[in-house]
Each structure stands twice: as C-alpha cells, then as structure tokens.
Amino acid sequence: MEKFSPVGEKEVTRAIVTEFAKQFDEYVESDCIIIGAGPSGLMAGRNLSRAGKKVLIVERNNYIGGGFWIGGYLMNKVTIRHPAERVLDELGIPYKEVTEGLFVSDGPHACSKLIASACDAGVKFANMTVFDDLVLKEGGRVCGVVINFTPVSALPREITCVDPVAIESPVVIDATGHDAQVVRKLEERGLIKTNGFGAMWVERSEDLVVEHTGEVHPGLIVAGMAVTTTYGLPRMGPTFGAMLLSGEVAAKVALQNLK
Amino acid sequence: MKSRRLEKIILYDEGVSDKLHVGEFAEYLQGKLGEVPVELRETPFALYPDKISDFAKKLASIKVQDVQRKIVPQNSPLYGEIQFEKRRIQGGTKGFGIIYDGLHLQKIFSELIPKMEHSLGFVHIFLTNRLFATWGESDKRYHLRTSVYGICSIISTTGLVEAPARPKEYYLLKSQYEMLGRNPSELKDRFKGRFIDYDDERLTEVTKGYVMQAVCYTLTGNPFCEDRGCRLYNAHWQEELIFAQLESEYEFCPRHSELLCK
C-alpha cells in the first residue's frame, strides 16, 4: 500500500487557516452575497458564477442544500413539475415522469449534483455562518450583510461577546426560505412590510413564486420560498421546480443590477 | 318581471384562460337577445396608458392575505407586488392564484369604463382569470366567487374552477393524499368530468351562462334564478354548475326564456 505523505499536525492546521483566511479576505467584497444555500440560492449562485460573477453563499448549517435532500414527510424523493425538469436535464440529474408533467428524482442525487454544479461554476461558501444584519448605505440601499459564526448565536448572550463582521456586495439575495430572514430584517427597520405566506395551494404557488422573484428593495433580491413570505403568496407543497426556476430568475435580475 | 332596455353589451378580455373562446360570446348573446349590439374589447386598460402604474398600485393593494380578515386597501404595497400587477396589465403575464377582494376589484374595474358608457342600458362584463372573494358578514370570512354583478360585472375563469365546491369525496381523498405526501393532482383523473378544470374544453360553454347572469342583472336587478336547471342558477357545487350549464334539458326556465325573448 502506498504510504500517506509525512505531514504533521501544524502543517494541516496551517493549510486550513491559510486557505480559509485567503478566501475570506477575497470574499469580504464580492459581486453578490446569497443568504441561504437551498435550491434557489444554489441555482442563483451557480448561474451568476457561470456569468463570471464573484458569488458567496452564506449558510447557517454545516451542510449545503437546504431542504432539497428530502421531499415531503422526510422521504428522500423530490418532485418537480414541468417545465422545471429542464433544469434537471441541464444538471444531469436522473428523473422519471410519474404522471403527466410531474417528475420525481432521488433527493441525494439531485441535491449533490446541484451543489457540485454550483461549486464547479465557482461559487464559494461560508457555511456554519449566520446572517445577523444588513449593511445599508445611501438611500437605504442594501450593500452587504453582517455575519457571525453559527455557534455564537447558539450560546447564551451572557457568556458570549463575539461581535459579528460585515461583508459587502452591491447585490444581496434572500434565499432563506419561509423565514425570509433578510427581508424581515428590513421590516424590523421599518423599510418594508412582509405579508406572511397564505394557505397551501401547490397548483398555483409555484408559478407565483417565479413571477414574484425579483428586487424587493434597492440592492435586495428575494428568491425561493422567501418570496411567498414576502408577498403573502400561497404556501408551496413539497415540489421544488419553483425553487430552481426562481433561482434562475434571481440570477438574471442580479446580473441586470450588476451591469 | 320588470326589465330595462339594453343599449349595448361590452365584453372585456382582462387576461382570460386560453381555453376561453371570447368570440363565441358575441354570437351567443346576439342569438339570444337579437338586435342588442355586442362589442368585444381587449384589455380594459388600453384606454389609460398613462395610468398603468396607478392601477397596478390599486390592484396590488386589494389582495386578500388571510380569508378570515377583512381587508382595508393598503396604501403602500411592495414594489414587487406593483411590478407584478404592471406586468399583468401590460400582458406580460397571465399568472394567477392571488385572491383579490371582489368588491374592491369591481370598483377598480368600473373606473376603466368610459364615462359616456356609464349608463344603466350598458352591460359591461369583465372576463378575467383573476381569482376573487367577497367578505361574508355572517361568518366573518371571505368566500371565493365565480362572479360579481353590478354596473360592471366580473366573471372569473379561475373562479369557475375554484369557487363552486367539488364533490365531498374529492376533498376527503385530497387531504389523505396530502398527509401521505402524494400529489393530489392524481385525483383529477379519478374525478374527471365531475368538475370544471383549467384546461377544460367546457369552459366557454359554461361561461355563457354567467355572461347571461350579468345581462339578467342589468335587465332586472337580479342575476339569479332558483330553478336548478336554468343557466341563471347560482351554483355552489361543481355538480350543480355542470347540470345548470351543460346537462339540463332546457337552457332557461320559462320565466327567464320569456324575459330574454322580449
């Protein structure tokens, strides 16, 4: 058996620190920061990176992919409705048509392919990182976000005193799902008023999510499930087509803003 | 039954389903009402190109978010909501699924009627795929509607699908499917024909009865008939709707047949 290279603990640590610090330094300023690494955030990031933009996705969990690993009721089959199977073809994700216009795929396969595609395109991630606040500049325009390590937010405030840091980008995408964390932060500041999502109506909610994806405030684009919370649209069921297509639209809108 | 004389019937296409053949309504109405002129108009917003942003804002302000809370039109809807309405007005999308307050929608649409046509002899019928609901004072909640009638009447093709209830067993199975994570759209095959669906070829024929209800409102002040076999019957169930509009042995009850012949 070929032996592993003789590398000591300090070299391993140095490699991690150096590479992390280098990337962090580089992405303190990027073209677009996306909050949330679910399907809409990944899709938006992938398409922006493929268009040559510098993209950082902030994810509060250690894992990337959000809810795309599993479908409804913890079952790992994900459903996609026409016309979103086009994205599955593009990403090389196998699927089958179960009824006319309804496609099903393995969650782990679909999710890992999407993540890989985003990584291949050049997207960088800050995982285990929570969105804390917004950076607002002239006229209330969103120009970046304030972040912290996830474990800090899990500790009681009395025993932590870890200040967050700010990173900047001319465009921020809220892809935080139903929480719509970024939009809600604007709401706390009195700059916007969200509506909360309505009752579940799978048949129409997907179209409406894609239709409403776009700039909700100067510098802030809303994508995926965060769109339903922002605009009070019907809640979606366990279908992911709108997440993928909403990510595509968010990327298009961001590209226009970045021109 | 006292009735008014009609001067003209005007039908507006405010983004209806592609399955609705609006052109057939003119022929149908002329067949029933003889010499009353019928005009088909495209988008009712065409006359107001400078006011599109105003109308978009008004429409974005009358959305029902919670069916148990009566809306007060908002003064400041979100930018994205206004943009969506603008795209809809300009024909950039026919996206639907938002529920509007039906009476506020009627008020906005009535502002689109040219002043010289604001007269009791004119029947203005807006055909749309927007979904709307009206507030019920008795149970303090909104109810989806197929139509609202008045100086300006609105008929919703989405309302035809969603407002009259489907068979009870459909809803029981639907909730079971949802609990099991199955797609309830599979049920459509099982209940095929028992309710009107979005891509339903029967949509145009069914809508003719609702157009006649709007005409009847202008003629008598009451759009409905209590006869379950008359096209003017106010159906609350899809099966009632299908019977009144498609399966009944007669089109109108004797009383309304006589009224329409006058």
Task: Provide an overview of this structure.
The complex is a heterodimer of chains A (259) and B (262). Chain A has helices spanning 9-26, 39-50, 85-91, 107-121, 150-154, 181-188, 202-212, 225-231, 241-258; strands at 32-35, 55-59, 77-81, 96-99, 102-106, 124-127, 129-136, 142-149, 165-168, 171-174, 214-217, 220-222. Chain A has a six-stranded mixed sheet with strand order 6-2-1-10-12-11, sandwiched between helices. A three-stranded antiparallel sheet of chain A has the order 3-5-4. In chain A, strands 7-8-9 form a three-stranded antiparallel sheet. In chain A, helix 2 runs parallel beside helix 9 and helix 7 (202-212) packs across helix 8 (225-231). With 259 residues, chain A is α/β, with parallel strands linked by helices. Chain A contains nine helices and twelve strands. In chain A, 39% of the residues lie in helices and 22% in strands. Chain A starts with 8 loop residues before the first helix and ends with a helix. The radius of gyration of chain A is 19 Å and the shape is globular. Chain B has 262 residues and is an alpha/beta fold. Chain B has helices at 23-33, 52-60, 79-89, 102-110, 157-162, 168-179, 187-190, 203-220, 238-247, 254-261; strands at residues 8-14, 38-41, 99-101, 122-128, 131-136, 141-145, 147-148, 152-156. In chain B, the strands form two sheets. Chain B has a five-stranded mixed sheet with strand order 2-1-4-8-7, with helices on both faces. Chain B has a three-stranded mixed sheet with strand order 3-5-6. The longest helix of chain B is centred in the last third of the chain and has 18 residues, at 203-220. Chain B starts with 7 loop residues before the first strand and ends with a helix. Classes of the chains: A alpha/beta (259), B alpha/beta (262). At the A-B interface, helix 7 and strand 11 of A face helix 3 of B.
